[in-house]
């Protein structure tokens, strides 16, 4: 069974608009972590934001925020005021368990294109 | 802080040769590192978990005799692709969890392997 699902293969957004990238997950572990990474054409994986399963508030990092809906098992990434440099692949990932030294499972990714 | 390096960034080799890829944590210690493989237009797939001082743990379907992993120190893990074939051509990327950054995993810049 797919543990991380990203249903949007591609998204096209006008510059300066906000964009939401969808991510749903499946786990029976009460302790887990959710991550979003950005992968530009260079291939590097850039960490954007992290949400722990016990965190009471939605995580925010600058223009990035994570809309964590625990009951729905969703962890959507919201990018406010999109910029041309935001064009990239975006991956949602999950780690089961508390410790950081646990493997990540990735979704299929969403290719975001920001149009000028 | 929290920088992970990889070397080489790109390698082209002949079929049948072996290729070694290094993954280093530059400003922190990593008892565990992870090796992923990414084929074009696909997501990251975990190959193995590298453990300092003990044997690596391989994911199902990954040949341990073909992909040799050595975690020689708290800052270095190596992946050796033995007797490489064209189907091994891929993007290989490592990651390490960073304790002082909470539960975050940081990735190296990746290595593009092309086997002719």
Walkthrough of the structure:
The complex is a heterodimer of chains A (about 120) and B (about 120). By secondary structure, chain A is mostly beta strands. Helices cover about 0% and strands about 50% of the residues of chain A. Chain A contains no helices and twelve strands. Chain A has strands spanning about 5, 10-15, 20, 25, 30-40, 45-50, 60, 65-70, 75-80, 90-95, 105, 110-115. In chain A, the strands form three sheets. In chain A, strands 2, 5, 6, 10, 11 and 12 form a six-stranded mixed beta sheet that branches. A four-stranded antiparallel beta sheet of chain A has the order 3-9-8-7, with no helix packed on it. In chain A, strands 1-4 form a two-stranded antiparallel sheet. In chain A, strand 5 (about 30-40) and strand 6 form a beta hairpin. Chain A is globular and about 40 Å long. The mean pLDDT of chain A is about 95. In chain B, the strands form two sheets. In chain B, strands 2, 4, 5, 6, 9, 10 and 11 form a seven-stranded mixed beta sheet that branches. In chain B, strand 4 and strand 5 (about 45-50) form a beta hairpin. With about 120 residues, chain B is mainly β. The mean pLDDT of chain B is about 90. Chain B is about 0% helix and about 50% strand. Chain B is globular. At the A-B interface, strand 5, strand 6 and strand 11 of A face strand 4, strand 5, strand 9 and strand 10 of B.
């Amino acid at each position: 069974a797919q543990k991380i699902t990203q249903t949007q293969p591609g998204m096209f957004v006008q510059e300066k608009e906000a964009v939401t990238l969808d991510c749903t997950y499946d786990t029976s572990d009460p302790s887990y972590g959710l991550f979003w990474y950005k992968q530009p054409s260079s291939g590097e994986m850039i960490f954007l934001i992290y949400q722990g399963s016990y965190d009471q508030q939605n995580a925010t990092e600058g223009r990035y925020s994570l809309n964590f809906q625990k009951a729905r098992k969703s962890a959507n990434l919201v990018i406010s005021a999109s910029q041309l440099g935001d064009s990239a692949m975006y991956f949602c990932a999950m780690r089961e368990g508390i410790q950081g030294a646990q493997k990540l499972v990735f979704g299929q990714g969403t290719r975001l294109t920001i149009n000028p | 802080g929290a920088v992970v390096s990889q070397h080489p960034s790109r390698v082209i080799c002949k079929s049948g040769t072996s290729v070694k890829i290094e993954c280093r944590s530059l400003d922190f210690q990593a008892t565990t590192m992870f090796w992923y493989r990414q084929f074009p237009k696909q997501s990251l797939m975990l190959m193995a978990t590298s453990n300092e001082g003990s044997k690596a743990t391989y994911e199902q379907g990954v040949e341990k005799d073909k992909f040799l992993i050595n975690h020689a120190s708290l800052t270095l893990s190596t992946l050796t692709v033995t007797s490489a074939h064209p189907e091994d051509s891929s993007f290989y990327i490592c990651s390490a969890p960073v304790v002082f950054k909470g539960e975050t995993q940081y990735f190296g810049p990746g290595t593009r392997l092309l086997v002719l």
